[in-house]
Protein backbone atom coordinates (compact mmCIF):
# COMPACT_ATOMS: atom_id res chain seq x y z
CA UNK A 1 0.00 0.00 0.00
CA UNK A 2 2.97 2.33 0.46
CA UNK A 3 4.22 2.14 -3.15
CA UNK A 4 2.12 4.15 -5.57
CA UNK A 5 1.29 1.84 -8.46
CA UNK A 6 0.23 4.53 -10.95
CA UNK A 7 0.59 8.29 -11.51
CA UNK A 8 -1.75 10.24 -9.24
CA UNK A 9 -3.62 13.44 -9.83
CA UNK A 10 -2.78 16.32 -7.50
CA UNK A 11 -6.07 15.78 -5.67
CA UNK A 12 -5.34 12.09 -5.11
CA UNK A 13 -1.79 12.82 -3.95
CA UNK A 14 -3.03 15.34 -1.40
CA UNK A 15 -5.67 12.93 -0.15
CA UNK A 16 -3.13 10.10 0.04
CA UNK A 17 -0.70 12.30 1.96
CA UNK A 18 -3.36 13.33 4.48
CA UNK A 19 -4.55 9.80 5.16
CA UNK A 20 -0.96 8.57 5.42
CA UNK A 21 -0.18 11.26 8.00
CA UNK A 22 -3.38 10.49 9.90
CA UNK A 23 -2.52 6.80 10.03
CA UNK A 24 1.01 7.54 11.27
CA UNK A 25 -0.23 9.99 13.91
CA UNK A 26 -2.95 7.61 15.12
CA UNK A 27 -0.33 4.93 15.66
CA UNK A 28 1.45 7.18 18.14
CA UNK A 29 -1.63 7.66 20.33
CA UNK A 30 -1.94 5.68 23.53
CA UNK A 31 -5.16 3.80 24.19
CA UNK A 32 -6.23 6.52 26.62
CA UNK A 33 -5.57 9.31 24.11
CA UNK A 34 -7.37 7.37 21.38
CA UNK A 35 -10.35 6.86 23.68
CA UNK A 36 -10.30 10.59 24.43
CA UNK A 37 -10.40 11.41 20.72
CA UNK A 38 -13.30 9.01 20.22
CA UNK A 39 -15.18 10.68 23.09
CA UNK A 40 -14.49 14.11 21.62
CA UNK A 41 -16.04 13.27 18.26
CA UNK A 42 -19.07 11.45 19.71
CA UNK A 43 -21.41 14.50 19.70
CA UNK A 44 -20.53 15.06 16.05
CA UNK A 45 -21.34 11.42 15.24
CA UNK A 46 -24.72 11.85 16.92
CA UNK A 47 -25.32 14.90 14.73
CA UNK A 48 -24.33 12.94 11.62
CA UNK A 49 -26.82 10.21 12.55
CA UNK A 50 -29.57 12.83 12.67
CA UNK A 51 -28.41 14.26 9.35
CA UNK A 52 -28.41 10.82 7.76
CA UNK A 53 -31.88 10.06 9.10
CA UNK A 54 -33.11 13.32 7.59
CA UNK A 55 -31.54 12.41 4.25
CA UNK A 56 -33.02 8.92 4.28
CA UNK A 57 -36.48 10.20 5.19
CA UNK A 58 -36.77 12.99 2.66
CA UNK A 59 -34.04 13.04 0.01
CA UNK A 60 -32.69 9.53 -0.56
CA UNK A 61 -35.41 8.26 -2.94
CA UNK A 62 -35.24 11.41 -5.04
CA UNK A 63 -31.43 11.65 -5.13
CA UNK A 64 -30.78 7.96 -5.79
CA UNK A 65 -33.16 7.77 -8.74
CA UNK A 66 -32.29 11.10 -10.31
CA UNK A 67 -28.52 11.29 -9.78
CA UNK A 68 -26.74 8.14 -8.62
CA UNK A 69 -28.53 5.59 -10.82
CA UNK A 70 -28.24 7.81 -13.91
CA UNK A 71 -24.54 8.67 -13.28
CA UNK A 72 -25.48 12.35 -13.51
CA UNK A 73 -24.83 13.27 -9.92
CA UNK A 74 -24.15 16.95 -9.36
CA UNK A 75 -22.25 16.15 -6.17
CA UNK A 76 -20.26 13.05 -7.27
CA UNK A 77 -19.70 13.99 -10.91
CA UNK A 78 -16.38 15.69 -10.21
CA UNK A 79 -12.99 14.27 -9.30
CA UNK A 80 -12.34 16.92 -6.66
CA UNK A 81 -14.73 17.37 -3.75
CA UNK A 82 -13.94 19.64 -0.81
CA UNK A 83 -12.82 17.81 2.32
CA UNK A 84 -11.68 19.13 5.68
CA UNK A 85 -8.78 17.44 7.46
CA UNK A 86 -11.20 16.65 10.31
CA UNK A 87 -13.45 14.86 7.80
CA UNK A 88 -10.51 12.62 6.99
CA UNK A 89 -9.58 12.04 10.63
CA UNK A 90 -13.11 11.16 11.68
CA UNK A 91 -13.82 8.75 8.84
CA UNK A 92 -10.46 7.06 9.51
CA UNK A 93 -11.24 6.88 13.23
CA UNK A 94 -14.64 5.22 12.77
CA UNK A 95 -13.51 2.83 10.03
CA UNK A 96 -12.47 -0.79 10.34
CA UNK A 97 -9.15 -1.94 8.85
CA UNK A 98 -10.70 -3.06 5.55
CA UNK A 99 -12.63 0.20 5.27
CA UNK A 100 -9.43 2.18 5.75
CA UNK A 101 -7.75 0.08 3.07
CA UNK A 102 -10.55 0.94 0.63
CA UNK A 103 -9.75 4.64 1.05
CA UNK A 104 -6.16 4.09 -0.04
CA UNK A 105 -7.10 1.72 -2.84
CA UNK A 106 -9.61 4.18 -4.26
CA UNK A 107 -6.85 6.75 -4.63
CA UNK A 108 -4.89 4.38 -6.88
CA UNK A 109 -7.63 4.33 -9.52
CA UNK A 110 -6.93 6.02 -12.86
CA UNK A 111 -8.03 9.64 -13.05
CA UNK A 112 -11.61 10.31 -14.19
CA UNK A 113 -12.74 13.92 -14.36
CA UNK A 114 -16.41 12.90 -14.46
CA UNK A 115 -16.48 10.78 -11.31
CA UNK A 116 -15.46 11.31 -7.71
CA UNK A 117 -12.46 9.16 -6.90
CA UNK A 118 -14.08 7.73 -3.75
CA UNK A 119 -17.33 6.78 -5.49
CA UNK A 120 -17.79 3.01 -5.70
CA UNK A 121 -20.55 0.81 -7.14
CA UNK A 122 -22.62 1.21 -3.95
CA UNK A 123 -21.78 4.83 -3.23
CA UNK A 124 -19.05 6.63 -1.35
CA UNK A 125 -16.37 4.37 0.15
CA UNK A 126 -15.89 6.72 3.11
CA UNK A 127 -17.43 5.22 6.24
CA UNK A 128 -18.56 8.73 7.17
CA UNK A 129 -18.62 10.91 4.02
CA UNK A 130 -17.31 14.49 4.10
CA UNK A 131 -19.63 17.02 5.65
CA UNK A 132 -19.64 19.01 2.40
CA UNK A 133 -21.26 16.00 0.73
CA UNK A 134 -23.63 15.21 3.57
CA UNK A 135 -25.19 18.68 3.52
CA UNK A 136 -25.32 19.06 -0.25
CA UNK A 137 -28.73 18.87 -1.89
CA UNK A 138 -29.29 20.46 -5.28
CA UNK A 139 -31.81 23.28 -5.53
CA UNK A 140 -34.21 21.16 -7.58
CA UNK A 141 -34.25 18.45 -4.92
CA UNK A 142 -34.79 20.93 -2.11
CA UNK A 143 -37.57 22.68 -3.98
CA UNK A 144 -39.39 19.40 -4.59
CA UNK A 145 -38.89 17.94 -1.10
CA UNK A 146 -39.78 21.09 0.80
CA UNK A 147 -42.89 21.58 -1.34
CA UNK A 148 -44.02 18.05 -0.49
CA UNK A 149 -42.92 18.22 3.17
CA UNK A 150 -43.04 21.85 4.41
CA UNK A 151 -41.98 20.91 7.95
CA UNK A 152 -38.79 19.37 6.59
CA UNK A 153 -37.51 22.84 5.74
CA UNK A 154 -37.44 23.89 9.39
CA UNK A 155 -35.66 20.65 10.30
CA UNK A 156 -33.11 21.34 7.57
CA UNK A 157 -32.43 24.84 8.89
CA UNK A 158 -31.96 23.47 12.40
CA UNK A 159 -29.49 20.85 11.11
CA UNK A 160 -27.47 23.48 9.26
CA UNK A 161 -27.29 25.57 12.42
CA UNK A 162 -26.14 22.53 14.39
CA UNK A 163 -23.49 21.80 11.77
CA UNK A 164 -21.94 25.23 12.35
CA UNK A 165 -21.29 24.32 15.99
CA UNK A 166 -18.74 21.80 14.68
CA UNK A 167 -17.39 23.52 11.57
CA UNK A 168 -17.77 27.30 11.73
CA UNK A 169 -14.93 28.82 13.81
CA UNK A 170 -16.65 31.87 15.26
CA UNK A 171 -16.30 29.87 18.52
CA UNK A 172 -14.14 26.87 19.53
CA UNK A 173 -15.25 24.07 17.19
CA UNK A 174 -14.41 20.39 16.81
CA UNK A 175 -12.90 20.59 13.33
CA UNK A 176 -10.41 23.25 14.44
CA UNK A 177 -9.52 21.29 17.59
CA UNK A 178 -8.80 18.15 15.57
CA UNK A 179 -6.39 20.06 13.37
CA UNK A 180 -4.59 21.45 16.41
CA UNK A 181 -4.26 17.96 17.89
CA UNK A 182 -2.73 16.50 14.75
CA UNK A 183 -0.44 19.47 14.22
CA UNK A 184 0.88 18.81 17.72
CA UNK A 185 1.44 15.19 16.66
CA UNK A 186 3.59 16.34 13.75
CA UNK A 187 1.04 16.04 10.95
CA UNK A 188 0.62 18.77 8.35
CA UNK A 189 -1.88 18.67 5.52
CA UNK A 190 -3.14 21.04 2.82
CA UNK A 191 -6.62 20.15 4.06
CA UNK A 192 -6.02 21.88 7.41
CA UNK A 193 -8.11 24.83 6.33
CA UNK A 194 -8.75 26.06 9.87
CA UNK A 195 -5.03 26.84 10.03
CA UNK A 196 -4.38 27.62 6.36
CA UNK A 197 -7.50 29.19 4.84
CA UNK A 198 -7.39 33.02 4.93
CA UNK A 199 -11.18 33.08 5.17
CA UNK A 200 -11.42 30.78 8.16
CA UNK A 201 -8.46 32.47 9.87
CA UNK A 202 -10.23 35.79 9.39
CA UNK A 203 -13.35 34.41 11.11
CA UNK A 204 -11.22 33.15 14.02
CA UNK A 205 -9.45 36.49 14.40
CA UNK A 206 -12.76 38.37 14.35
CA UNK A 207 -14.07 36.08 17.08
CA UNK A 208 -10.91 36.59 19.14
CA UNK A 209 -9.87 32.96 18.71
CA UNK A 210 -6.82 33.39 16.52
CA UNK A 211 -4.67 34.63 19.40
CA UNK A 212 -6.35 32.68 22.17
CA UNK A 213 -6.19 29.26 20.50
CA UNK A 214 -3.24 29.55 18.14
CA UNK A 215 -0.92 31.79 20.11
CA UNK A 216 0.09 33.53 16.89
CA UNK A 217 -0.06 37.06 15.66
CA UNK A 218 -1.75 38.28 12.51
CA UNK A 219 -0.17 36.72 9.44
- Low-confidence segments, ≥5 residues, pLDDT <50? 1-5, 212-219
Oligomer: single chain
Structurally, the number of domains stands at: 1
* Average of pLDDT: 87
* Largest sheet data: 2 strands, antiparallel
Assess the beta-strand content as a share of residues. Answer: under 5%
Give the % helix: 55-70%
Tally of individual helices: 11
Structure description:
There is one protein chain. By secondary structure, this protein is an all-alpha fold. It has a two-stranded antiparallel ribbon with strand order 1-2. The N and C termini lie far apart (38 Å). The chain is globular, with a radius of gyration of 18 Å. Helix 2 packs antiparallel against helix 7 and helix 6 packs across helix 7 (150-167). Helix content is 63%, strand content 2%. It has one domain (10-207). Residues 1-5 and 212-219 have low confidence and may be disordered. Strand 1 and strand 2 (123-124) form a beta hairpin. The longest helix has 38 residues, at 31-68. The chain has eleven helices and two strands.
Brief write-up:
This protein is 63% helix and 2% strand. The protein is an all-alpha fold and 219 residues long.
What layout of secondary structure does this protein have?
Blueprint: H1 10-28, H2 31-68, H3 85-93, H4 97-106, E1 119-120, E2 123-124, H5 131-134, H6 139-148, H7 150-167, H8 174-184, H9 193-196, H10 198-206, H11 209-214
Antiparallel strand pairs: 1-2
Helix pairs in contact: 1-3, 2-7, 3-8, 6-7
